[in-house]
Amino acid sequence: MKLLKLFKNKAVLAVAARGVGFLASFVLSYAIAKNFDLSDAGSFLWAMAIVTALTTVSSLGTGQHLVRAAASEKDMTQESFDMFSLSFFGVVITFIFFFVSCFFWGGDNRELLLYLAPSLFLIGVASSLSYIIQGLGYVKSSLLFLTTFTPAFLSLYIFYNDNILDVALARSAISLLLLVTVFFVIYFILKVRLRFDFRNLLSTFSRARSLFMVAISLMIISWGGQVVSGFYLSSEDLARLSITQKVSMALGAVLIGVNAYISPKFAREYRASGVSERLRNLYAKTVFSSTIPAVVMFFLLIYYGDDLLSYIGAGYSGYSGLLLIFLVGQLVNACTGSAQNLLNMSGNDNLYKNSVFVATVVFFIL
């Protein structure tokens, strides 16, 4: 019964959905590495990193804002429509910028980027529509579906076709199917009439502004290395960099699992008594719960990491040193516990923003 009660909590489902999305993304990366040669894998993963990063930015921080709203258990109906309008506006602007940029800075990968461009717009709009579903309380059906749909179907397609341009077109086609499905759920099942309210865009953005800056910083930390490396590394080395980083992110699954359990407890305790001794003890437990399993996985991946990379592909073996660098970063992240999500859910925007900003500065220095 406790487990059922736990997964009825909107904040839990919103955070746990990220874990499912990570798993689906990992399977997609494995399919790319297994079926593409190193050069094609590097080009495709670099283009995907750009599209994914811009999709994150296009939301203008609205997704994280609604996760925080869900933690407070407030009525999010109007808030979700406001965030939908803001996110849709951000998607349109980002798509236009990306499409035009492909012609000036696309280089040898211009055609690949243009084939992926529709997926940026379609997934962005689908994510915007999901905020309406989320505002009505259907967080599980919206977020879990959105985070697994495209990478899962694309992974299956890659096993039957190893041409990167065909796969790029397939991603756009699958993204269209995703958008149609989300629209069908909203219009015909939930019977919600869509409405755009662009009159209050500035006031809506002001509510999500701090989290928009956080989204940009997190995008830089997560995808900046791959995007920047694509301009000076060979496609082969870029593929090794991307796949090795993806393997190291298995440590992140530990922290995601801890977040799924502890976040609603933190939100309730914070609303009840603010920053109390019980709250400090609760956070200490999250650090312990995420650190111990992460340390175990850290040493397992150090020992078996090269074998795992060799299984993915012969071209990826012998890069255990690179894997170690990524693992150290992931271990440090796990050892911080649920700090960032907890700061977000408790409304400590400035602390949350400053911690991510410091991490971004360190990223650029390294």
Quick structural gist:
With 366 residues, the chain is mainly α.
Radius of gyration based on Cα positions? 20 Å
- First CA to last CA: what distance? 47 Å
Total strands: 0
Which stretches of 5+ consecutive residues score pLDDT under 50?
1-8
The major sheet is characterized as: none
Which range does the strand content fall in? under 5%
Shape descriptor: globular
Query: What's the number of helices?
Result: 15
Secondary-structure-derived class: mainly alpha
What descriptors fit this protein?
disordered N terminus, 366 residues, globular, mainly alpha, 15 helices
Structural notes for this entry:
- The chain has 15 helices and no strands.
- The protein is mainly alpha-helical.
Indicate the topology.
Layout: H1 2-6, H2 10-35, H3 38-58, H4 62-71, H5 77-105, H6 110-135, H7 139-158, H8 164-189, H9 201-229, H10 235-248, H11 252-273, H12 277-312, H13 320-335, H14 339-345, H15 349-365
Helix pairs in contact: 2-3, 2-4, 2-7, 2-10, 2-11, 3-5, 3-6, 3-9, 3-10, 5-6, 6-7, 6-8, 7-8, 9-15, 10-13, 11-12, 12-13, 14-15
